[in-house]
Amino acid sequence: MFNDIIDNEVYMRCDIYEEDSNYHIEIDLPGFKRENINLEFNHGYLTVVASKKDSNNINNYIKRERTYGVYKREFYVGNVDYSKINAKYKDGVLIIDVLKSYDNKDKKTIEIK
């Protein structure tokens, strides 16, 4: 459980822990706007996609460490009840609660509150 696929060299750092009948996933996404984060469940995979555009038109940087683009991370959570997946985004952290085991393989977009 929780084998994940990382689709970018600079990836979303996360903590995952289990408590009672839930899995909790906390993903650091500093500097992202909630409307630029997408969360989907499909065939046992929970997918997080976040994007950040570079709005600067500066070409003569001396040093540049911040990154921009599209970031994607997938977690295999198994067959869970997607209607029981809750997500919220606060202070640069996406917090996802997943109720354990359920037999449903439909694709669903999850609202981030």
What does this molecule look like?
- 20% of the residues are buried.
- The radius of gyration is 15 Å and the shape is elongated.
- It has strands at 4-6, 14-19, 22-28, 37-42, 45-52, 69-76, 86-90, 93-99, 108-109.
- Strands 1-6-5-4-9 form a 5-stranded antiparallel sheet, with no helix packed on it. Strands 2-3-8-7 form a 4-stranded antiparallel sheet, with no helix packed on it.
- Helix content is 0%, strand content 46%.
- With 113 residues, the chain is an all-beta fold.
- The two termini are 26 Å apart.
- The protein has no helices and 9 strands.
- It has one domain: Immunoglobulin-like (Sandwich), CATH 2.60.40.
By oligomeric state, this entry counts as single chain
How many runs of DSSP E, i.e. beta strands? 9
Counting structural domains, the number is 1
Please state the structural category: mainly beta
* Separate helix tally: 0
CATH architecture: Sandwich
How large is the radius of gyration?
15 Å
Question: Could you write a compact summary of the structure shown?
Answer:
The chain is mostly beta strands. It contains no helices and nine strands.
